[in-house]
Design brief:
Length: 214
């Protein structure tokens, strides 16, 4: 009977922790739905489908959160989307005098659709290890190289960060090497919207993990 009593107390304590645990504040309802294909030369961990589902859920929670909105609203990036692009999948909002893009404009472009359907094509990149993947504006198909897809406790979070980076490209924001010379910013990743969004997602997930929120 004593054992049952202690067991009941433990169960009640766990329930109480779950009820009163801090949870992310939600300001939007964004849902990612991500499918994947594996090239015949590529390999993925045995439980990759489950890991990707977790990354999908994490990314949906981050993009829907007040933490993500507040972090992006504080940013101001160099132009990477509009100097020559003729793509129409994103709204053109930037300061034509300075070439700057406010974080709010990036946020609004990323959250333009409430449901985001993406396909990840996993490929082998040979001996090249510097690039994790690639994507193009307005194409909801992402290339991901398999060399870094190593199963560990953080792969879902790394995937969420990677997908956030590539999705920022999908929504029209490019890297320094693909913009007019007048708008280049060199190696300053803090000026790059795609790196900026990926970093924000990564930092939020680290914070939530430390607080036991995920």
């Amino acid at each position: 009977m004593k054992k049952l009593g202690w067991l009941l107390l433990v169960i009640l304590a766990l329930v109480a922790i779950n009820i009163f645990a801090e949870k992310p504040s939600v300001v939007a309802d964004i849902r990612f739905k991500i499918s994947f294909n594996v090239d015949e030369k590529a390999t993925v961990p045995s439980h990759f489908a489950d890991t990707l589902r977790k990354a999908e859920q994490l990314l949906s929670r981050v993009f829907s959160s007040a933490d993500f909105k507040e972090a992006l609203y504080k940013q101001n990036y160099n132009d990477s989307a509009y100097s020559k692009s003729k793509k129409k999948c994103f709204e053109v909002v930037y300061d034509q005098t300075t070439g700057r893009i406010p974080g709010k404009a990036v946020y609004d472009n990323l959250l333009a659709d409430k449901e985001v359907n993406l396909t990840i094509n996993i490929k082998n990149n040979g001996d090249k290890k510097g690039t994790m993947g690639s994507s193009n504006a307005c194409s909801y198909s992402i290339t991901t190289y398999d060399y870094w897809l190593v199963e560990n406790g953080e792969l879902a979070q790394r995937l969420a960060r990677h997908i956030a980076h590539e999705f920022t490209h999908v929504r029209g924001f490019r890297h320094d090497n693909k913009v007019d010379k007048a708008y280049k910013w060199g190696r300053k990743t803090e000026e790059d919207p795609a790196y900026g969004v990926g970093n924000i997602v990564g930092e939020i997930l680290k914070m939530w993990s430390k607080k036991g929120m995920i």
